[in-house]
Write a structure and sequence with these properties.
alpha+beta, 17 helices, globular
Length: 581
C-alpha cells in the first residue's frame, strides 16, 4: 500500500471509526424494555426496542467508570407486538463483566439502569419470601424486622364464629373458636385454605428442591436466630393457622376464615368486623391433606412431634374427602340458605379431581402406602400449569422430585410423566425468536388472565423442572426470559415487583399499603399483571392483552397482590439464584 493511501485510510478512520459519542444527559426512554434489576454474567442478555426503526446501533455505558464498555447492532428483523408496535432486539449476551450499566441507543436515549452480578437475584429472592412476613396475621410486625413498615397486631382471631353454613352436630352456628396466625391472602385480610394450599405447597417444594440454599438464607424475621431455616419458619406460621381449620370431630376442613364482606381500606388493627369460618369443602380438605402430608416429611428433621401431627391431620382429611367427594364450595347457593351472606373471595371450583391427585401424591411419597398409589394409576397425566384451581401437577412435580427414593413407582408411568413435562416445556420455548418480547409468557395471548404474572412465574417453574430432568440449557434460558418479562421486558415497561426496578407499582391494591399512603409500597410483592378482562372498572391506557395494566389501587384485576402469586415468583427468583451459586 502506498504511503499516501495509508494516510488516506487513517484520515477516513479518524472520521468514521472513532468511538461513539455518548451524552450522559440523555433521558430515559421507556421504549427500551429490559430487566431493570439485571442479569447473571453468563445468561442471555437482551433488550427489546420498541418503535425505533431509524436506529441501528447501541452501546452499554458503565455508570461507575463513565465509559463505553460494549457496542452492538440492533437486529435487522422487525417483529410486531400484539398492539402493532415494531420491535427489535439489542443482544449483549457476550458481555459479562460485573458492574452497573445503562443501554444507550446511539444519540437517542438510554434505558433504565441494570446490573450484571453473579448474585443478581439474591435480594429480590429474599424480599419475595419476606413479603409473607408482612402478611402475617395475629402478631405485631416489629421495626427491627420491618423497618418503616412496622405495624400493630391485627386480627388475633381468637373470637372466630361458626358461620351457619359450617354448623354441625358438634359445632353449632355462633359457637366461637380460635384460629390465629396465618397470612392475609391478598389485598384483603381474609384467610383461605384453597389459596394457602397452592402457596404453601409451592414454598415447601422450593425448600425440597434447594434445601442447602435455604439452610443458609437469613430473612431477618423474628425466628431467624433459631436453627430452623427461615423459609420453613415463615411457612410454619401459616401451617399453624391451617391446622386450626380442620374440624377435629370429622377431619373436614373449613373453606375459609373471613368477614362477611370485604373490609374497607383500614390498617389491620382497625379492621374489627366479625370473622367466620365458612362451610367445609372437598377441595379445601384435599388441598389441606396435600400440604400436611408434604409438611410432615419436610419438618420431620426439625419438629418430629409436629411432623406426626401433620400426617395424622392429612390422613383424617383424606378420609373425610373420600366420604364427601363432591362437596364443592358454591358461595351463591350458600348465600341463598344462610345468613349473613358471604361475598369475599369464593375460590370455588367445578371439580376436586386434581386436588385428589395432589393429595394422593404427597401422601404416597410420605407414607409409601399403596392405597394412595391406587388413586394415581389411572389418573390424567397430561400437563396443566398449576394454579389455585388446577393443582395436579404440584403432586406430579413432587413425584418427579422423589422418584429415586421410591422404588415402587412403575417406570413406564413415570416415563410418561417425564415425557409430558418435557413436551409442555418445549412448547413454551419453541418459536420464541418470532415473539416480540422473546419470552414464553408473551408467546400466547391466552396467557393474559387475572393474575397473569403468576402464569409467567409458573411457566418458569415448569421450565426449571424440565431443566432438572435433562439439563437442556434452552429450558433454563426460557426461565430467565420469563424473569426478564416480570422485571421489565414486557409490553408495559413495568417491573411488576414492588421496590425492585426503576418503574415499579406504586399503588397496588393492597390494604396494608393503601391504609398507609405516607409510605412506599411494601417491597417484594408481585402484582397481578396485564389482564384484558379489566373487571375492576378502573382506567386502563390500553385494551391490548399484554398492555392491560393499571397502576392504581382500584385495579384489583391487574394490580392486586396475592400469596399464590408471590409463591411461584419466590420459587422462580430463588431457584435461579440457587442454581447460580
Amino acid at each position: 500500500m502506498k504511503y499516501s493511501h495509508i494516510l488516506l485510510f487513517g484520515f477516513l478512520c479518524i472520521m468514521s471509526c472513532k468511538a461513539p459519542i455518548v451524552d450522559e444527559n440523555l433521558t430515559v426512554d421507556e421504549s427500551i424494555r429490559l430487566n431493570q434489576v439485571g442479569f447473571y454474567p453468563d445468561q442471555q442478555k437482551i433488550a427489546v426496542i420498541i418503535n425505533h426503526e431509524d436506529v441501528e446501533d447501541f452501546v452499554l455505558w458503565d455508570d461507575d467508570q463513565k465509559n463505553i464498555v460494549y457496542e452492538g447492532k440492533l437486529s435487522k428483523e422487525v417483529i410486531k407486538t400484539f398492539s402493532g408496535k415494531t420491535s427489535r432486539i439489542a443482544d449483549f449476551s457476550q458481555f459479562n463483566k460485573v458492574g452497573k450499566y445503562v443501554l444507550i441507543l446511539s444519540g437517542v436515549a438510554k434505558s433504565y439502569p441494570f446490573e450484571i452480578n453473579p448474585k443478581i437475584n439474591q435480594e429480590l429472592g429474599k424480599a419475595s419470601i419476606k413479603a409473607f412476613y408482612y402478611q402475617r396475621a395475629s402478631m405485631e410486625i416489629e421495626k427491627s424486622h420491618a423497618g418503616i413498615w412496622a405495624r400493630a397486631l391485627g386480627h388475633p382471631d381468637d373470637q372466630v364464629m361458626i358461620h351457619p353454613s359450617a354448623a354441625s352436630n358438634f359445632r353449632k352456628a355462633g359457637d366461637i373458636l380460635t384460629a390465629p396466625k396465618g397470612w392475609y391472602d391478598a389485598g384483603d385480610y381474609n384467610k383461605y385454605i384453597v389459596n394457602s394450599g397452592i402457596t404453601v405447597g409451592t414454598l415447601l417444594s422450593l425448600f425440597e428442591d434447594y434445601p442447602d440454599y435455604f439452610k443458609k438464607l437469613d430473612l431477618n424475621i423474628p425466628e431467624s436466630s433459631d436453627q430452623i431455616p427461615d423459609l420453613l419458619n415463615e411457612v410454619r406460621w401459616n401451617l399453624d393457622w391451617m391446622i386450626t381449620m380442620q374440624d377435629p370431630n370429622d377431619g373436614g376442613v373449613y373453606h375459609k376464615l373471613t368477614t362477611a364482606k370485604f373490609e374497607g381500606m383500614l390498617e389491620p388493627h382497625l379492621a374489627n368486623s366479625q370473622r367466620y369460618v365458612v362451610a367445609k369443602s372437598t377441595t379445601a380438605t384435599l388441598d389441606f391433606a396435600a400440604v400436611m402430608a408434604q409438611a410432615s416429611r419436610v419438618y420431620k428433621a426439625y419438629y418430629p412431634e409436629e411432623s406426626v401431627m401433620y400426617l395424622k391431620a392429612a390422613e383424617n382429611a383424606w378420609n373425610w374427602a373420600n366420604k364427601n367427594p363432591n362437596v364443592l364450595y358454591k358461595q351463591n347457593e350458600l348465600n341463598e340458605s344462610f345468613d349473613p351472606d358471604v361475598t369475599t373471595g369464593a375460590y370455588g371450583d367445578f371439580s376436586a379431581v386434581d386436588e385428589k391427585i395432589w393429595a394422593a401424591s404427597e401422601l404416597f411419597i410420605t407414607t409409601h402406602n399403596m392405597t394412595y398409589w391406587e388413586e394415581l394409576i389411572d389418573a390424567d397425566q397430561s400437563f396443566k400449569l398449576p394454579s389455585w384451581n388446577q393443582v395436579a401437577w404440584l403432586g406430579y412435580y413432587s413425584l418427579l422430585r422423589h422418584q429415586e427414593n421410591i422404588s415402587l413407582l412403575p417406570q413406564e408411568w413415570m416415563a410418561m410423566l417425564k415425557i409430558n413435562l418435557l413436551s409442555a416445556a418445549r412448547a413454551q420455548i419453541d418459536g420464541l425468536n418470532g415473539v416480540a418480547f422473546r419470552s414464553p409468557m408473551e408467546s400466547n395471548v391466552k396467557n393474559f388472565i387475572w393474575g397473569s404474572n403468576a402464569v409467567a412465574a409458573n411457566q418458569g417453574i415448569l421450565l426449571q423442572y424440565a431443566y432438572k430432568q435433562n439439563g437442556e440449557h434452552a429450558f433454563l434460558e426460557g426461565a430467565y426470559d420469563n424473569m426478564d418479562y416480570i422485571l421489565g421486558r414486557n409490553a408495559t415497561g413495568y417491573s411488576y415487583v414492588t421496590g425492585f426496578g426503576s418503574k415499579t407499582p406504586l399503588h397496588p391494591h393492597h390494604r396494608l399499603a393503601e391504609s398507609r399512603p405516607d409510605l412506599p409500597p411494601l417491597p417484594g410483592f408481585i402484582v397481578g399483571g396485564a389482564n384484558p378482562g379489566q373487571q375492576d372498572g378502573c382506567s386502563y391506557s390500553s385494551k391490548f392483552a399484554d398492555e392491560s395494566y393499571s397502576d392504581e389501587s382500584c385495579s384489583y384485576a391487574s394490580n392486586e397482590i396475592a400469596i399464590n402469586w408471590n409463591a411461584p415468583f419466590a420459587y422462580l427468583a430463588n431457584s435461579l439464584e440457587a442454581i447460580n451459586q
